[in-house]
Please model this.
Amino acid sequence: MPARNRKPSIDPNRLPRHIGIIMDGNGRWATRRGMDRNQGHRAGSKAVRKVVRTCRRLGVSYLTMFAFSAQNWGRPESEIRALMELLGEFIVKEWQEIMDRDIRVVHLGDLKKVPVAVRRQLQELVAATRKNRSMTLALALSYGAREEILRTVRLLAGRVAKGKLNPADIDIDKFSGQLYTGKMPDPDLIIRTGGETRISNFLLWQSAYAEYHFSEKLWPDFSSQDLLGAIAEYQNRRRRFGLTDEQIDHRQAPEES
Ligand code: FPP
Model:
């Protein structure tokens, strides 16, 4: 088999527990085909479906998809409307499969800004899937990491002002627990498609020790094979979390009795 068609081999015991994806390139994908940008987003939603299925099949526990940023509200109104409609359609179309595959859906971001129809659909999906356990799919919608951090600072500052919290008790865990991601583990792997090598206000706090994978592929072209390739590359990286190689080797060595 030619090398490019060979499935990257994945160690199922060393999967990233949490993958975050910045889905970039829908607009360019459409423009290159002489199509409307919104058709690119529609093609992008098919790629979402594929990637969710693949992550679920592999056994990835958490998948966060950056569907709409806090800054995307500045896009032309017609594009915002089309994206919101597409999200609503996605929720309706995928509802049964999400339930059948035991996927829990959570939302990250400022729901107040989301048009009421989609907001309700999303809230209903979140409520209906809250007991599902096979995988958590976090939809970052109307989400910005700086906005998320500021919201948490305000929330904790409010408790301090009321005398309910001692500033000295604010540590990394307490702060993390108040972010939209709450009890979710930090992302291990962040993938960005579309050829840009930037983070664009995505999970800034949570990705302190994430590994990054930047793909030249435009999001609608990103396949399950590309996802496997990103995971295989992740598995070849050595994560040190600020420690030395020797310390990591020692931690990974089997316990001596
Ligand atoms: C960035 O590409 C992509 C978005 C702003 C929207 C992502 C949305 C989807 C993939 C579809 C719906 C999502 C779900 C979860 C159903 P861009 O438009 O900035 O691309 P460009 O850089 O080529 O212009």
